[in-house]
Design a protein that fits this description.
The protein is mainly α. Helices cover 70% and strands 0% of the residues.
């Protein structure tokens, strides 16, 4: 069982400052800044206001290390296209901001509630595997579609995105590069930098192809506009969303939570692997504790600086990179908390440094596209693994298509109808019997194959 205990960790006092991870964080803040073009396009935010949203989100990243959750937190990346589609239904202005506020508040409340009660796994397993598979896969397809659709970012940066994505898939997913990094220290160093080398390459490639200007380096400290943010985009300035907006969010909230829970499962798998290499430090990852922390982040941020990237439990690429150093022993990294805490201190400092922000500003749209395509690959793979039979895969394909075309409410409705037609009303057995002990040990399916993803939490 996971240890749910909250333990306060403060830098320099409760954990060692890890200089390599801090330096990497300074550079990797470029990925956090990729949220800015999204905020500008969806809400018409000025650059300085959008920077304020990113800084506030960055500050709350520190809660994970502070409360003993040894992971690099990030966005709910697979859900970004779902969030974009949902808020775009509302007119730009106060109504659209209220829609995002209500959506993020509901995600935060649901996460905290499930974390406190420990019901996260039962709630997820009450949803048929075919629908879970379709929602997660559909989120991945929507991520890729958002980049390649007519007028999307690929039309603006075709050459840079093609080169950057090709290199990213080679560096992150290629067996050949994994073999090289195991044999050569130079390639291992490249591997440990995650997607940062690709972002640096984009800064050079985009101007060479005429797809972005050369960066103009500015010196000093960034100047986020928190005043305008609080007056025009927070509950303190425009009030709480109306009740009907909260009700309207429910199907999308459930879809977001399904893809979010996939990140929780992935987190546990990554940290379990890291823990096996370091018997000196039990990591004691607790999904319930993680739910409370990222749920609280969403609840607080939704009121003061609603953010369409939302507050997720995991930045998988950087968590894996830090785990690699962690596995090398205590001399290399004191603890996972010291590594992830120092990294997130670095990203926050980087967001305040104008030279770094001005360097990456021309290619922020490329960084966002790169993130969404990589996440699309991961989400499709995870979504397929969720299915427990060939019939589930067929249903999940329909659900994924409906999700991309019509949204979360239609996806749940169509998925439920097809499940009933194929499996009958026994598909509702988990919902009928509720949270009785042992009722979720076996799901309704035509095959007996175990779902490998859920084994991580059922041990």
């Amino acid at each position: 069982m996971s240890n749910n205990k909250f333990k306060i960790n403060l830098p320099f006092i409760n954990y060692r400052f890890e200089f390599p991870d801090f330096c990497q964080g300074l550079l990797m803040c470029a990925v956090d800044l990729a949220a800015i073009p999204l905020l500008i396009s969806l809400f018409g935010m000025p650059m300085e206001v959008a920077l304020g949203v990113v800084l506030i989100n960055g500050l709350f990243y520190l809660l994970h290390a502070t409360f003993n959750d040894g992971v690099v937190p990030g966005w709910i990346t697979p859900a970004i296209p779902l969030i974009m589609a949902f808020v775009s239904v509302f007119p730009e202005g106060t109504e659209r901001i209220h829609a995002l506020m209500a959506l993020q508040m509901m995600v935060g409340f649901l996460s905290v509630f499930l974390g406190v009660t420990g019901w996260a796994l039962p709630v997820i397993k009450a949803v048929p595997a075919s629908i879970r598979s379709g929602i997660i896969m559909g989120a991945g397809i929507a991520s890729v579609f958002a980049v390649f659709k007519l007028g999307g970012r690929f039309d603006i940066f075709p050459y840079t995105i093609s080169i950057a994505v090709g290199l990213a898939f080679y560096l992150i997913f290629s067996d050949h590069f994994k073999e090289l990094s195991q044999k050569n220290r130079f390639f291992m160093s490249i591997n440990n930098l995650g997607i940062f080398p690709i972002i640096v390459l984009a800064i050079v490639i985009a101007p060479l192809f005429g797809e972005a200007p050369w960066p103009t380096i500015e010196w000093g400290i960034t100047s986020p506009d928190f005043g305008t943010l609080f007056r025009e985009y927070s509950v303190y300035g425009i009030g709480f969303p109306p009740l009907e907006t909260f009700i309207f969010t429910i199907p999308t909230v459930m879809a977001i939570y399904l893809v979010l829970f996939g990140d929780v499962l992935q987190t546990k798998a990554i940290l379990d692997d890291a823990e096996s290499a370091r018997p000196d430090e039990p990591l004691n990852y607790s999904p319930n504790r993680a739910h409370i922390i990222f749920g609280a982040r969403n609840l607080i941020i939704s009121g003061i600086s609603p953010d369409p990237t939302m507050a997720g439990p995991l930045w998988s690429a950087m968590t894996v990179v830090i785990c690699q150093r962690y596995k090398q022993g205590q001399k290399s990294m004191q603890s996972m908390i010291s590594g992830v805490g120092s990294f997130r201190l670095g990203t926050n400092c980087g967001l305040l440094m104008l030279p770094i922000v001005s360097l990456v500003q021309p290619i922020l749209g490329i960084a966002l596209a790169l993130t969404m395509i990589i996440q699309g690959y991961v989400s499709c793979k995870v979504g397929i693994l969720e299915a427990k039979s060939e019939k589930d895969l067929g249903i999940s394909g329909i659900v994924a298509g409906v999700l991309v075309a019509k949204g979360a409410a239609w996806a749940f409705a169509v998925g439920t109808a097809i499940c009933v037609l194929i499996y009958g009303f026994k598909i509702f057995k988990p919902l009928i019997y509720g949270f009785k002990k042992g009722v979720y040990k076996k799901e309704v399916s035509t095959e007996e194959e175990p779902n490998l993803l859920f084994n991580h939490l059922e041990k």
